[in-house]
Write a structure and sequence with these properties.
By secondary structure, this protein is α/β, with parallel strands linked by helices. 61% of the residues lie in helices and 13% in strands. Helix 2 packs across helix 3, helix 6 runs antiparallel to helix 7 and helix 7 runs antiparallel to helix 8.
């Protein structure tokens, strides 16, 4: 890790879609996966749907990049975005909307302005 990265106290917060995650887990530079360079300086968040598409389904088909991503996910290098998880649970019928709204309102102080508001509007069917 470079001196600049070692001095950085906070990692850059990022949100990855499946394309960025798969691409960075497939290719190597200087003997390391690109995703490992990104982990050094970023806190990577992935929505549950992205985890499902890139890791869960990839493992079923035996893809090496899915195995690499799974190891990093299990090591805590990726965050699964909680508001998206709550929305997914409601959409699958595994959580009732009133409970989901209560959860989202409770966790709102932990997220940047707009994230929870968007999730609540999605739950209410406003957008």
């Amino acid at each position: 890790m470079s001196v600049v990265l070692q001095k950085r106290k906070r990692k850059i917060l990022t949100l990855f879609d499946s394309g960025a995650l798969i691409t960075s887990a497939k290719f190597h530079v200087r003997g390391r996966l690109i995703v490992d360079y990104l982990i050094d300086c970023c806190r990577i968040t992935i929505p549950p749907e992205v985890k499902y598409e890139t890791v869960d389904m990839g493992l079923l088909f035996g893809y090496q990049d899915a195995e690499d991503l799974s190891k990093r996910l299990n090591a805590g290098h990726f965050l699964v975005f909680l508001p998206d998880l709550v929305l997914l649970l409601v959409n699958k019928g595994w959580m009732k909307t009133p409970l989901a709204m209560e959860i989202l309102e409770t966790i709102q102080p932990r997220y940047a302005k707009g994230f929870i508001e968007l999730a609540l509007k999605l739950l209410k069917g406003v957008i």
